[in-house]
Amino acid sequence: MSELVVLGATGSIGTQTLEVAERLDLEVAALAVGSVSAAMFAIAERWGGARIAVADPGDAVSDIRAAFGERAVCGPEAATRVASRPGSIVVNGIVGAAGLAPSVAALEAGNRLALANKESLVAGGPVVTAALDRGGGELIPVDSEHSAVWQVLVGEDVARVRRIILTASGGPFRGWQREELLAVTAAQALDHPTWDMGPRITIDSATMMNKAFEVIEAHHLFGLPYDSIDVVVHPQSIIHSMVEFVDGAMTAELGEPDMRVPIQYAITYPERRPAPVEPLWLSGAEMTFEDPDTATFRALDLGYEAGRRGDSAPAVLNAADEVAVAAFLDHRIGFLDIVEIVAATLEKVPQCDLGGLDDVAYVDAEARSAAARFIEGRG
Ligand code: MG
Fold first, then answer.
1. N or C end of the chain, less CB within 10 A?
2. Which positions ≥6 away from 179 have C-beta within 8 Å?
3. Ion ligand 1 residues within 5 Å by Cβ
4. CB of 375 within 8 A of CB of 324?
5. Residue 169 C-alpha to ligand 1 middle, in angstroms?
6. How many whole angstroms from 145 Cα to the centroid of ligand 1?
7. Residue 197 Cα to ligand 1 middle (Å)
8. What is the pLDDT of residue 191?
9. Tens digit of each residue's pLDDT (9 = 90 or more) over 172-188
10. What is the pTM of this model?
11. Are 376 and 147 in contact (CB under 8 A)?
């Protein structure tokens, strides 16, 4: 098997990827991190031969050189450099826009990209899919919903798919009305009932913007029109997503929520290997389904709208959301304002083609400053 390159190696996805690597006895060629930490030194020691890529070494460049010598790669391009090593399986668990360039580099080098970084396909969808076409690599999703669809589609012809149905937990405010959401605080929104995630994705789950992003990702991953992508609220999250075929048959992937399963599958695909995961026990389990309340949670419709506009619109959605979520966490705007600001920014920033990474960076900056102006106008 190819050697692993793990981007975001000390984060949640990276840590679980290294667990999988340990268990399957895989070789690790490189580990990329954002900054210097004790965890970085620990994994660098465990994976003795691996290159160590540090995006922002701060004032520790000489320490890093002293510790790792030739193994070290430092600077903003570090992850991109190690991702472009041919013959690698690149697991991209970087959080944020910094994950896009390494995704493109991995695919251009013809590598397999096991993708957990949201921004790659949400902000840079056209650029990433062009890199996939050019480089002849493979793009395999790690997110549980998209991995479910990927698994269901093995051996199937996408032309025989009527629709894919992404499941959504509904977030902590499922069933709430707009009046109740007006007074929601950052602390309430951060208190997700089942998942302990980073602050932005927790707020994105509460607004359902996360599901909007997943619809856009699904469009790029599976090449399906937005009319063929649906969302159903399934609070128990037992079904990770499903596919309905033209003959009316529907196939689902189910399991305990454990990210090691989709991470491992993206690495070993098309093979399956044993994993130390709790078996799913269906006796007594309850599964319910309902339509998303799109009148209360407007992010979902906004995601479809941005996706259908295409080009730069999803990049605007992503950048404006990041700025608005930060303002909410900082108590500068209310919970419902997040999506209002994203909608206003989407109207404001002119649409353009995304030919390459520079275009994505330009649109990202335009959207951030437009969103910041709307936030000031509200404060
Ligand atoms: Mg997900």
1. C
2. none
3. 143, 145
4. yes
5. 9
6. 5
7. 11
8. 81
9. 999 999 999 999 999 98
10. 0.96
11. no
